[in-house]
What does this fold into?
Amino acid sequence: MLRGTGHGGGDARRRALEHRRSARRRLPGWIWWLLGIFLLVGFMLFVLHHNQKEQFRPPVVDNGSEIEEIPHEKVNFTEELLSSTSFARQLADQMTLAKAYVILAKEHGNLQLAWELSSQIRNCQRLLSEGAVSGRAITQDEAHPIISRLARLIYKAQDAHYDISTTIVTLKSHALALEERAKAAIVQSAEFGQLAAESFPKTLHCLTVKLTEEWLRNQKHRSRSEEQRNSTRLVDNNLYHFCIFSDNVLATSVVVNSTVSNANHPQQLVFHVVTDRIHFGAMSTWFLINDFKGCTVEVRCIDEFSWLNASSSPLVRQLSEAETQGYYYSAGSKNPEREIKFHNPKFVSLLNHLRFYIPQILPNLEKVVFLDDDVVVQKDLTQLFSIELHGNVIGAVETCLESFHRYHKYLNFSHPTISSKIDPHTCGWAFGMNIFDLIAWRKANATSLYHYWQEQNSDLLLWRTGTLPAGLLTFYGLMEPLDRRWHVLGLGYDVDIDDRLIESAAVVHYNGNMKPWLKLAIRRYKYIWERYVNFSHPYVRECMLH
It folds into this structure.
């Protein structure tokens, strides 16, 4: 009995507890009403706040449905600027006019107006830049304020008598003044460049003076020089002969040194150097006191050639005339627009024209290589002597890769003497590294041809000056083209020559005004020349050439 009664009482208590728990989970109805009211009020406040925010929000910031309905289309801004009805075009036109008035305002001392115009020009530029970056058309609301302000300022400028006619006259005078200044600068630059190119650096002059002193002081040098004149090597056609005509001791030394340094058998090389009376002692001394790997160097003076006189050479005769001396050697000129480069005395120096008298200078030789004093040899040149010239007198590298290096570039084809005998489209070629067949030369009587053309050009109507036009005419139809790699030109004026072309070249030529021994030399190419300068020589060190 007691066990059963106890069990029933426990069940009753458990049901009472569950009843009380379920009663506590259920919320009264008034609480639900209160929560609903709060939610309703919050929703109304949210809607009210949202409407106010939408009312005062700027249209540019709004990324809502209105932008989706009317999206901005990308435009071609260049077409906008070209369109006569676009605001971008109006802004650009106004800005251009405003810039002209800025100049006029500054000239008339109205700095305030100039500052205001400049400020609006910057605003205009900023707006155009934004339009170009975003790729959208400039709207009236954006353009109108700037256009209005620029219009008022332009009207203000016109009211101050800065009208269109004044603008045109002023700008035209500015343009003419700038053009005159540019012309004067070009002429001045040409004069200074030519003076620098023609000048003899004091370091080279120092070397010449010291070598001349050595020549005059040392009788042994003069005796050795006379002994070398009788060497059989000078007339041996089994050896390789080179000729150089120069008054520059160091430049000639570089040519000789670079040639023997790159030769397979330097002892078989013979150099015939001709210089003038002033530099003869210095040139002779230099090649007597220095050894160039066993080669032979003969130095001669141009005064020894008694056959080179006014009766036999038109050039010598022309140089004795006062008109020619005034053209090339006068300090000034009545014609300020003369082309300075054509008045370089070097163009008519006898040394420069000796290349047309090689058979007379070397009467016993059959073949010779001519080298200018502004070249550097990088390969063995003895292979030149085995090149077949096919009966031609001269072997040269052609320069007509571009059309302006043909004959019509150098000669006056309006003259009947030229046009009747020469094809203007014939390919030009270069002096500076040439192989001459002296047997063919004598057969063609090329020196007489040179004299003929010099006589015809006594009035400088066929060509201006220089040896190349005379050479083109003298050896017309007598030139054998060589491989381009034998002779690479332009190191004296062209800063963009391909390094691979320079490395493959047998000879590099510093033709132009920027010679490697001058301060205005192109630095990129100067090291090639300096490799063959003996900077350890006492005289060179003393003259501070390095």
User: Anything to note?
Assistant: The longest strand covers residues 269-275. Confidence is low (pLDDT under 50) at residues 1-6, 53-70, 331-345.
